[in-house]
């Protein structure tokens, strides 16, 4: 893929818009996390739960728009190694989102900071990539959105045990088992997407 | 004519999806926090207003999804050839998703009302006051969704705008003293035992209704027509509601067990009394006959600042009711009761380390609490029975009097 083709490909997938949205989300996450962590009436960095839950979700929602072109079937007849392109696309986007969001939680990273942001980024992008394969990129945002919002709505119910598994987006990063579903979603979503691509 | 489009929209548009989403959303938040509403009519009305934190974003997303449909389906030009004002389909689309969403709320609400009716022991005057604002607030949210969806018809507008509204509605919770919080339909300022005057609810309904009108007029690009409701809404902003909320004495009246030692709950929590009594009675009976210790346990909601009652221990029923009307966390209920035995809002001792090994007063209190739990330390069991009870009485009395020196003197070793 030449540099021009790459540029056209990225533009066709709406990557500039995704980049602008991602910058907004990062700035918002950074400001909100800083504000929440410095309020005297909260318990310091532990008050950053809303940012940890919602910022990776927002970034993943924006990513969903870039996972398919205007006409997938037409694209696939072109002599391009699409699996490689898809792997690079989803891999680079996940790493970029994770790095940017992690930078917003560097202060006390273990208490609802960088580590939890990275975990949730991996989980949310995995959910979105998997959904793009199963139900198409148009509605790929729906499962991750519904899942995280539902778990967030039930936040009073979280206190260890099974909650580590089903409510992983809200667990502290020190809860080891909360990483398992996030990593599983990330691996499954990435493998599905790289192998089959978004449903046309 | 509009009625026919509305029927078609209701049957074939996003209304069914909106109904499903709001039904699932409301069911989920009701099940997630039963303690807020089970058994209390006032609690149900108030909690529904808190649920708007989740429901408003859903209605906004539904409105945005509906409004962007024609552009996503690339039928704008085709529909433009129809000799019908552009605001007709837009207004019917908004009405359809709003009605659909409201219908979706009906079933979980009816179930919640039936569950509340089974247990409720009190319905204060005007407990339903916060309810009429609910559909108006939701209609305003879907109107905002229509406005956003017309401007940005993309596929990701609905979820992103929904999340943004969620964050926006959650913001006032971080500014508890702000008087601007009354502008939001979703508020956590309400309590099931506090009555807000009718003028306040009317003000909020008028504000949100005008907001909905402004959003819809802006969505149809009738800029000048939007000025009128916007100006009216502006005047409401200048004249924030003056009336203050007042506690409902009927809701906070105490209902007690007949046999001594008494256990009392407020009238809105009467359905929990048998369970609370079963949990706290053993502890109260353990204290019976010890001078200076409480002879009754009373729910904390009835406690007034400065109202010191030496014979009373307090307990909290916060987040305690389960869906079936029982007590959710018996150990926590007991903990709040026990900690009130030795606490009367004392300031933290300045030079204390909080370590029972170094601090004799802490050691004394710890021994008394272990005795309450039925696991007294050996140095206490070494005393004869009557001496043990006298010692316990003096410890709790000193503890409630914030007398750290006396507590240190009472140390057993």
Overall average pLDDT of chain B: 85
Count of alpha and pi helical runs of chain B:
17
Structural class of chain B: mainly alpha
Query: How far is the N terminus from the C terminus of chain B?
Result: 90 Å
Gross morphology of chain A? globular
Strands of chain B, total number: 6
Number of domains of chain A: 1
- Proportion of helical residues of chain B: 55-70%
Structural class of chain A: mainly alpha
Main β-sheet of chain A, in a few words? none
- How do the helices and strands follow one another from N- to C-terminus of chain B? HHHHHHHHEHHEHEEHEEHHHHH
Termini of chain A, distance in Å?
22 Å
Q: From the alpha-carbon coordinates, what is the Rg of chain B to the nearest angstrom?
A: 28 Å
| Oligomeric composition of the shown chains | heterodimer
Mean pLDDT of chain A: 88
Radius of gyration of chain A: 17 Å
How many helices of chain A does DSSP assign? 9
Number of strands of chain A: 0
Protein name (chain A): ABC transporter permease
Keywords (chain A): Membrane, Transmembrane, Transmembrane helix
Keywords (chain B): Membrane, Transmembrane, Transmembrane helix
Can you characterise this structure?
The complex is a heterodimer of chains A (200) and B (413). Chain A has 200 residues and is an all-alpha fold. Chain A has one domain. In chain A, 66% of the residues lie in helices and 0% in strands. Chain A is built from nine helices and no strands. In chain A, helix 5 packs antiparallel against helix 6. The model of chain A has no long low-confidence stretch (mean pLDDT 88). Chain B has three domains: 241 residues, no CATH class; 89 residues; 50 residues, no CATH class. In chain B, 58% of the residues lie in helices and 5% in strands. Chain B is built from 17 helices and six strands. In chain B, helix 2 runs antiparallel to helix 3. At the A-B interface, helix 3 and helix 7 of A face helix 2 and helix 8 of B.
């Amino acid at each position: 893929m030449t540099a021009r083709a790459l540029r056209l490909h990225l533009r066709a997938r709406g990557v500039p818009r995704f980049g602008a949205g991602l910058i907004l989300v990062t700035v918002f996450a950074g400001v909100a996390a800083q504000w929440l962590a410095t309020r005297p009436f909260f318990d310091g960095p532990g008050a950053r739960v809303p940012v940890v839950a919602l910022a990776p979700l927002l970034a993943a929602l924006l990513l969903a728009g870039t996972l398919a072109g205007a006409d997938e079937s037409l694209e696939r007849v072109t002599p391009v190694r699409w699996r490689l392109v898809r792997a690079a696309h989803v891999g680079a986007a996940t790493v970029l989102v994770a790095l940017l969001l992690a930078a917003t939680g560097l202060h006390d990273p273990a208490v609802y900071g960088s580590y939890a942001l990275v975990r949730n980024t991996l989980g949310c992008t995995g959910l979105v990539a998997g959904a793009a394969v199963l139900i198409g990129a148009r509605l790929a945002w729906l499962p991750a959105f519904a899942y995280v919002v539902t778990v967030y709505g039930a936040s009073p119910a979280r206190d260890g045990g099974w909650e580590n598994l089903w409510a992983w987006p809200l667990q502290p990063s020190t809860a080891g088992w909360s990483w398992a579903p996030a990593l599983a979603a990330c691996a499954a979503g990435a493998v599905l997407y790289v192998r089959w691509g978004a449903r046309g | 004519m509009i009625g026919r489009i509305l029927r078609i929209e209701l049957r074939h548009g996003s209304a069914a999806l909106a109904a499903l989403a709001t039904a699932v959303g409301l069911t989920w938040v009701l099940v997630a926090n039963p303690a807020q509403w089970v058994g209390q009519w006032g609690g149900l009305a108030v909690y529904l207003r808190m649920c708007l934190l989740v429901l408003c974003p859903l209605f906004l997303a539904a409105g945005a999804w509906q409004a962007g449909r024609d552009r996503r389906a690339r039928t704008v030009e085709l529909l433009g050839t129809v000799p019908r004002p552009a605001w007709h389909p837009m207004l019917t689309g908004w009405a359809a998703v709003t009605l659909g969403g409201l219908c979706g709320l009906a079933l979980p609400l009816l179930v919640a009302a039936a569950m509340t009716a089974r247990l409720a022991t009190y319905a204060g005057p005007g407990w339903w006051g916060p309810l009429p604002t609910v559909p108006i607030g939701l209609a305003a949210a879907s109107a905002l969704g229509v406005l956003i969806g017309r401007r940005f018809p993309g596929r990701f507008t609905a979820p992103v705008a929904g999340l943004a509204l969620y964050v926006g509605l959650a913001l006032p919770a971080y500014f508890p003293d702000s008087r601007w919080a009354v502008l939001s339909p979703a508020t956590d300022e309400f309590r099931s035992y506090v009555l807000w005057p009718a003028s306040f609810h009317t003000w909020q309904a008028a504000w949100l209704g005008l907001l909905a009108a402004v959003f819809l007029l802006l969505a149809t690009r009738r800029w000048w027509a939007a000025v009128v409701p916007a100006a009216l809404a502006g005047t409401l902003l200048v004249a924030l509601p003056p009336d203050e909320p007042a506690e409902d004495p009927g809701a906070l009246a105490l209902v007690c067990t007949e046999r001594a030692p008494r256990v009392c709950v407020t009238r809105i929590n009467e359905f929990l009394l048998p369970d609370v009594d079963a949990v706290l009675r053993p502890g109260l009976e353990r204290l019976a006959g010890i001078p200076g210790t409480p002879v009754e346990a009373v729910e904390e909601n009835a406690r007034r600042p400065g109202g010191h009652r030496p014979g009373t221990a307090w307990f909290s029923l916060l987040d305690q009711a389960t869906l079936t009307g029982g007590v959710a966390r018996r150990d926590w209920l007991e903990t709040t009761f026990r900690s009130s035995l030795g606490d009367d809002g004392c300031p933290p001792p300045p030079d204390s380390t909080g370590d029972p090994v170094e601090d004799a007063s802490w050691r004394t209190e710890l021994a008394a609490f272990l005795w309450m739990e039925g696991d007294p330390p050996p140095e206490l069991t070494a005393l004869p029975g009557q001496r043990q009870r006298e010692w316990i009485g003096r410890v709790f009395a000193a503890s409630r009097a914030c007398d750290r020196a006396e507590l240190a003197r009472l140390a057993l070793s």
